[in-house]
Design goal:
heterodimer; A: mainly alpha; Helix Hairpins; 3 helices; elongated; B: mainly alpha; two-stranded antiparallel sheet; NUOK/Mnh_C1-like (chain A)
Amino acid sequence: MEIVLAIGIGLFTASGVWLLLRPRTYQVIIGLALLSYAVNLFIFAMAGGGLRVDSPPILAPGGVGDPTAIADPIPQALVLTAIVIGFAMTALFLVVLLAARGRTGTDHVDGREPDR
Amino acid sequence: MTPVLDHLAILPILLPLAVGAFMLLFDERRRLLKMSLSLVTVFALLAIAVTLVVLVGLPNGDRWSTMIVYPLGNWPPPFGIVLVVDRLAALMLLLTSVLGCATLLFAMARWHKAGPRFYTLFLLLLTGLNGAFLTGDLFNLFVFFEILLAASYGLVLHGSGTARVRAGLHYIPINLVASSLFLVGVAVIYGVTGTLNMADLSRIVPTLSPDSRTLMEAGAAVLGVAFLVKAGMWPLSFWLPTTYAAACAPIAAMFAIMTKVGIYVILRLFLLCFGDEAGASEEFGALWLYYGGMATILFGGIGVLASQSMQRLGGYSVLISSGTLLAAIGTGNSAVISGALYYLVTSTLAISAYFLLVELIERGQAAGADVLAVTLEIFGDPEEDVEDEDEEVGVAIPATIAVLGGAFLATTALLAGLPPLSGFIAKFAMLSALLNEAGDIPFAHWSFVALLMLSGLATLIAMTRNGIRTLWVPAETEIPRVRAIEAIPVGALLFLCAAMTFAGGPVMRYMEATAQILYWPSEYARDVLGDRPAGHITSDPRASGHGPAGGPP
């Protein structure tokens, strides 16, 4: 399970960074999205007690329950916040991207085509 | 302290957030209403910040300083999020609100009409800044960083125009990537220590086992890179001059404090987690800050000399200021840091005044005139000889130019660190503390001294050149029309710098007390977490009651 998650995070990060360094704004925004997926998965991997399957962070009624059987809820809360913020920022960047396309007439990240 | 005063700690966040949201309900045409609401808000923030500075300076019980700890929702730390007002946070709040008042007044003259929802974005920026200074929790810090960044994305684009959109296209992605790094760093630190509370962190770091220590330091380094991007350390700073030059004047002036947020967080976390009490992790990363800061000063100094427009010159001065502060933090000497805090305040005020002033001076000039002027200076103006013949008669300097010129002179003295203004005192305080260290003075210190002097010289040369060609020209160019509401903020910022010179003693004492408190993370932790003994931290923090695992302490 750990190895699958690690490979997933690695793939997302590698593709994200590669796309981020490309010259077209659309590639950059997809790169940013992939990078934020990688980060969100990474936060899960850092949960206290490691990765757990089938252990929702819900206490048994009337008692504390078995602490080893519940997942750490804090990373889940962090991921939720990070997803919301990342989504808003991507939307905002999309608007800027469109504005830049309209104003400069090119989708190059520098706002002008490089001299060839 | 009375319970009512306790709630002052959350007002700097709540007030601008609520007013900013409320203003969204009104139509863009109701400018007068929005203007007066925002004005009342920023001056209320100023009053709150002054009160907080006074409150934290009061002696409390056996201590000569007070700390206001505000647990949100009354959840006890480290389980809930806390807001912490100590001397440093109160100082930064005061600086933010002063800049907020000055730039908002300036923007009211004409810039607020340049785009929609200016006031809401401006107040959100203040919310984010105040929140970042107040919070005592790492993840909460991320949230406030995002608030201030989101507002700043909108404000960079305020006034529209191709140059601003182009600058935004670089500014936004680099900050989004920095935010990703921020999250990675926070996640690693949480994974290792099991806490996000900064005070708790300072208690746990010395008890870590060697394996987790390496991981914790790696996390802190990733987190540090995120803040260094914000602070503009070389080589993470290439976005900064372009963005600052493209933003409209009041926004660029307000952004003067944005790099200082990065500096503030580095100062706080570095001294809390890797200060004198951190055991084996003591001074982790100090050399990176020291040499990185010096490289930034060098880069900023070259940039100042090379810039053709006055706005870019301002952007590079921001870099010099950041570099100086980072290097000063890297020395790890509390006396240097108290000088650096004084420098932080004066340089922020001066850079802010500079950005406002430049817009006023350049108003009379055609776009691109200053680029042409630099070219003419280098290659010689063919018409120059003809012109000079009948210009021998004295020409009266117009009053506006005289006022602007005087203000320009003052900013030059401040930015270059010349006497008699506070820029000189700041540099003198840092240098004398550095050279008064016991024992032999290492080579690195001498290079820092030399770089500080040379950057001052570079600023002086560049500013003089700009001043001569914009203010000392014959009165052919149109005299800029300046309204009182635009001149007053510039004058007020410069007046504050002058006041800091005259009241150098008391201000410096405040800074010294601030720096000394920063060097006692255990006191900070005791104030935030209460008198609970540090013994609840066992070797494995995950089993210690920090996580939901809730093991017995």
